[in-house]
């Protein structure tokens, strides 16, 4: 959930400053250059030192992208994630390491990750192909390639720490376009990696989820969970129907298959009740879907080489003209202009 101010106004999505601090500490740049990069986002390096400090998620993703370009390191997210340990996410990371099975470690991490980063959605699905899915539910957060690769890479690093190394998932999926040197990702994860997929995801071998760690310590888990209660980790329960729908649509694989009846049913509401409650929040289902479609399109325009027609279809529009009109109405720019300006920056 997105945190709110005292007046109930949604605040910009944030990430714990210690994550950005850890990334900056891992790159080979002078202190003055790091300060310069932070200053562009209005951040003082001293602002990152507090344990409870947060930074704008938009600023974080832009800084990550600038670092990758400055260092000529297109896989910076992956490279940095391999250097991080459980201390990056504090008690949550150590509970992961102390859990009785890999599956329980992942399930706890999924439940707890929102204390580190807003507007992200981690889902774990059990079954014949256990799958961990990572979604940034706010489509205005751009660019996101480095954050996504860092996030899945970090989970992969945690798993290998939990199992004392030598582990590889079944396959890994990324929403963004494939890089020039694709084998870098397959070497990192030790499995096939697919790009331009519906979701960012890690698919596991089912037998791996029952594996246990030599670090299992139920007493430490209880102690750390008590600590988290004492320090008051933030509660991110969803508070608005609009937000619930946004999270639900964040997991949609086909933007042209979004029906209000299906959404209402999943929420346990009638269509009439859904429309009425959204109206009370100053929203409409049609507007939510339109913003989501345009958000998906913006992400593809920034991070992929797909044609305008392909992006229109992926965003739920049957032809380019209607997509261009909707995009211009929402952003004030044509899709091609938006892509050109994004590439210039």
Q: What does the model show?
A:
It is a single chain. A hairpin with a 5-residue loop joins strand 3 (120-125) and strand 4 (131-136). This protein has 345 residues and is of the alpha+beta class. The strands form two sheets. A five-stranded mixed beta sheet has the order 3-4-7-5-6. The chain is built from 16 helices and seven strands.
Order of helices and strands: EHHEHHHHEEHEHEEHHHHHHHH
| Overall mean confidence score, pLDDT | 85
The N- and C-terminal alpha carbons lie at a distance of: 29 Å
Percentage of residues in helical conformation: 40-55%
Q: Helix/strand/pairing class, anyone?
A: alpha+beta
Q: Taking strands numbered 1, 2, ... along the chain, how are they ordered across the largest sheet?
A: 3-4-7-5-6
- Low-confidence parts, pLDDT < 50 over ≥5 residues? 1-9, 233-238
Sheet-strand content, in percent, reads: 5-15%
Number of E strands:
7
Our Rg estimate from Cα atoms comes to 20 Å
Largest sheet: 5 strands, mixed
